[in-house]
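U., I forgot to send this yesterday:
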Amino acid sequence: MRSVLLYTAARFGVFAATAGVLFLVGARGFLLLLLSVLISGVISFVLLSRQRDAMSSTVTTGIQERRRRLQQARAKEDPS
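Result:
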């Protein structure tokens, strides 16, 4: 779960930094929001690939564990 929070915080940080720079350059309103989303998305895709992979691994492992426990619970309910 830590990797999910770390990745989310990093994405938000990149977005905030991008918005700050664009604000200083003169972008305002909807243009600021649109450019911040687009530019921070590209930056995050490149710079946060390790964190994204770690988060993906954590989420996948969690889902697999929940499925395994669900299968065990089903097996206990229905012994046939």
